Protein 1
Amino acid sequence: MAGKPHLFGADYSVYVRIARLALLEKGVDHELVPVDIFADGGVADWYLAHHPFRRIPAFEHGDLRLFETAAITRYVDEAFSGPPLQPQDAARRAVMNQIIGLLDAYAYRALVWGVYVERVSKPQQGKMPDEALIAASLETARTCLSTLTRLQDGHAFLTGDAPSLADLHAAPILAYFTLAPEGAALLADYPALGRWWTGLTARPAFRATEPTG
């Protein structure tokens, strides 16, 4: 399939960053088309052709249009040359998918909205954080981090000795979480995960996708 892929979204988005990380780790030249879901007036009607629920990201490559980050990242890994981002072993690939499910179902809401937004984003806007929500979210975060440590099982990355889609899914969530003092402190309780985090944040793809806002 010819042509440069287009990714639609905003660089502040966790899920847009996941897709960008996959594209960059694979070495895929692509264009980020700005779509701001928080813009005044909402998302423009033209975007409905790309995402029926007006969310981000969406993806276009030739005649193919995709939405949902998991579908986009798996396509990127399978359609383009470059380092594989999914384990070849069925068991390790199942663990990768389990980690991605864990991150979507439990970590994203707690670590980003329950901790980062409440502790960092709201005060920046002059709003009071919900301390009860932060406390509850930190309990969920602890379960998430301890589970990731167990599943990592001493490897350099979450599913083995090379980065996979699980690592790319986790990175933008942890990036926001660790901006909160409680998030950084909690991560320090998990040294193996901390070493993983140090290595992951040093990767060129991670640095190239830092939010600009």
Protein 2
Amino acid sequence: MSRIAGCFAAAREAGRKVLIPYVTAGDPAPDQTVALMHAMVKAGADIIELGVPFSDPMAEGPVIQKAMERALTHDVTLDDVLDMVRTFREQDDRTPVVLMGYLNPIEVKGYDRFADEAAGAGIDGVLTVDLPPEEGEDYIRTLQAHDIDRIFLISPTTDPERMAVVSRASSGFIYYVSLKGVTGAANIDTKAVGDRVSAIHALTALPVGVGFGIKDAESAAAVAAEADGVVVGSALVRKIEENVTSADKIITAVTTLLGEMRRAMDARQGVTNKT
């Protein structure tokens, strides 16, 4: 069983929902990322989603675009991100880490080399925003051979036939994009989210993590009532931007919000919080 599958299984047994924070690797500086990852785990994160800086992040709203720009001013590369995860693994061999990014850096490195290095670094899953599974046969096969989960997106406009295609290509969990738009956009219709999550569950036994538009403890708890996992990105990255000159303030701001989300999610499920 992969770390991701084990994480969801343990949460399900405990009656909890999985909390998945996203931050951009190297934002605001490369030497701050690993400490922030450890702090998020302590604050209640179950899985960490680590963004790979990219010059054309088409799925991102302005908050995460700026985060990637900040990281790229330090020339943070895919190799640097893998090094960060290796360092994280020196102290934490339990928390799953998912890379979220775009296909170009992986293609430049080559699928075999990337998968080998990612597995060696301790990466558990990869989400490539701009690779549809219908065009990813070699990519999927290569990651599978290295026991790395392939995470793909389903959106509000995905029809049932394509949901089935995405589900068959995926492992670890399905990432449901709750909104029609980029990261950080609009407010979530939790009833609509619940309906779509139910439709996905009818097609696959994989857990469903819901992201986009989760801004605070209330929205995290509402989504947790409908999904297996809650992915939060822009709200945390905004805390980094607001405190960009102080590493200590970044950790305090990010973990405070994350802790509020963890407690609200657990309270909604009737779970005694342990953070």
